[in-house]
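Appendix C: a fully annotated inverse folding record. The material below is reproduced so that readers can follow the format used throughout the book. The structure is listed first as tokens, followed by the designed sequence.
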């Protein structure tokens, strides 16, 4: 049985085994020095020893890392891993392919440690991903999580061959990144007096303030940490809704100009950036400029979901903008705002991405649509117009619900390519992303329980070819990865609770609907 997650495309088991010990040397070209350093750091922390490094020439004994231009059929992220009694060879057409081969090798090392054998079964693996976008969205706006937690998540994402961290850093309940030109965003916007607990309709609060933000130096550290692990960090600046924390910091960005507080409750706020004021666009462009200096990502996420239009309907400046621009209504006003930001970012060499509420006939065709909820007919219409999509179907990828609602098998059985899609458009589905919204995730313990092992299932969905997906087989391979989470100090749900029976799910849902909420 192949023990690796995500499951490789092809694995042929050979005879004999490789003996893993501290005497093993690792040979690699200088381009691989960072990969070797990361591997040895992992070896020290996980297995208690490291390999001797040699960057001069390959060998027929030890571990060889090799760039091989003839492996173009495996793509930039694919790799070939060959193990016999004396040699482990990891080859890739690009450095990131070698890096992913190392992640598979690390899992084989873990298995050897778990079995107390120190032996790696001889085998040959050829592997490459199904989708180019394999992401995790981390909402740090509703609850702040420190930089060390972000790095811990990045380490695990890399281990699972995931390559995108979608960084959702601003919300109604908090602004989390230092912006030099607008210091009040963190002086005021990163703090709230209290936090709702229990449920959205609860009247109970935690009773303590909540605050936190990342300095620009911390952001740079996170981005560099991610880059070394071949993970792109995509920042999200919510436009035009989910902006209460920014408006609390700078009331002039709103339609009413009145002072509000950073929200303590969750749910959809009526507050929204004023689309009739030029200073709003100046603010957004200034913030984007600083974000682009911090995040080298080609893609900038601009949100766009859950943007109530009540304030715009009552605002003279917004109504004047609708008239001046020849727009039909407030929905088209949001399209105007989105396109204006899209043009600005395009001029800077960036590409916008937004939740599927930004979709419209006038939307710039280069924009990536992030599907989470809504009419699939509307989504398919834009897909067939060759727009790129990332899929985050809320009922199949959202990590903030409990396991009774969204059990592990539901995540594993998700196919990012919508049913009945013409194969001609498969390439326009870039992949999937599993979002964690943190209304009820105040700490690492809760984060780990919500995310794992469901994110592991999403990692396999994003990488492994559909014909190779097998949930029973996945469950057999899962304990090894969970043991790794325990080594790195990441909590997780137990396997006993991740797949409740349909009867238990029905009873829990019935009780939830039948009795009033507290």
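Designed amino acids, in order:
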């Amino acid at each position: 049985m192949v023990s690796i997650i995500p499951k490789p495309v092809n694995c042929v088991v050979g005879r004999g085994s490789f003996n893993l010990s501290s005497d093993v040397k690792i040979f690699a070209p200088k381009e691989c020095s960072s990969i070797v350093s990361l591997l040895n750091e992992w070896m020290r922390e996980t297995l208690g020893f490291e390999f001797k490094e040699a960057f001069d020439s390959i060998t027929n004994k030890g571990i060889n890392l090799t760039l091989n231009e003839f492996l173009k059929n495996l793509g930039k992220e694919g790799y070939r891993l060959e193990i016999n009694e004396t040699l482990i060879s990891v080859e890739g057409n690009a450095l990131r392919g070698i890096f992913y081969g190392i992640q598979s090798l690390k899992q084989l090392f873990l298995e050897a440690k778990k079995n107390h054998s120190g032996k790696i079964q001889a085998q040959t693996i050829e592997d490459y991903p199904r989708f180019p976008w394999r992401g995790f969205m981390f909402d740090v706006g509703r609850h702040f999580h420190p930089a060390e937690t972000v790095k811990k998540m990045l380490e695990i994402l890399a281990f699972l061959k995931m390559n995108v961290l979608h960084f959702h850093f601003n919300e109604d309940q908090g602004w989390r990144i230092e912006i030099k030109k607008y210091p009040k965003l963190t002086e005021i916007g990163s703090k709230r007096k209290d936090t709702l607990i229990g449920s959205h309709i609860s009247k109970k609060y935690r009773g303590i303030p909540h605050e936190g933000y990342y300095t620009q130096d911390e952001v740079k550290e996170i981005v560099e940490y991610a880059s070394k692990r071949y993970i792109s960090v995509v920042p999200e600046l919510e436009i035009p809704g989910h902006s209460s924390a920014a408006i609390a910091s700078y009331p002039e960005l709103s339609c009413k100009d009145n002072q509000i507080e950073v929200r303590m409750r969750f749910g959809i706020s009526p507050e929204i950036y004023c689309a009739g004021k030029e200073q709003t666009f100046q603010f957004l462009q200034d913030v984007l400029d600083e974000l682009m200096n911090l995040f080298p990502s080609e893609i900038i996420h601009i949100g766009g979901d859950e943007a109530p239009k009540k304030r715009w309907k009552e605002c003279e400046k917004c109504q004047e903008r609708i008239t001046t621009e020849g727009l039909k209504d407030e929905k088209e006003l949001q399209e105007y705002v989105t396109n204006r930001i899209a043009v600005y970012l395009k001029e800077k060499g960036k590409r916008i991405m937004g939740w599927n509420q930004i979709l419209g006939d006038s939307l710039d065709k280069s924009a990536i649509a992030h599907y989470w909820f809504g009419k699939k007919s509307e989504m398919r219409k834009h897909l067939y117009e060759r727009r790129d999509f990332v899929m985050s179907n809320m009922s199949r990828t959202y990590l903030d619900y409990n396991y009774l609602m969204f059990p592990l098998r539901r995540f594993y059985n998700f196919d990012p390519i919508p049913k009945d899609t013409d194969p001609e458009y498969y390439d326009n589905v870039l992949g999937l992303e599993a979002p964690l919204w943190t209304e009820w995730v105040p700490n690492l313990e809760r984060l780990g329980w919500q995310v794992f092992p469901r994110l592991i299932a999403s990692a396999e969905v994003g990488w492994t070819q559909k014909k190779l997906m097998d949930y029973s087989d996945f469950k057999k391979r899962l304990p090894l990865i969970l043991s790794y989470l325990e080594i790195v100090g990441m909590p997780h749900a137990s396997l006993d609770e991740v797949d409740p029976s349909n009867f238990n799910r029905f009873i829990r849902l019935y009780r939830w609907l039948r009795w009033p909420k507290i």
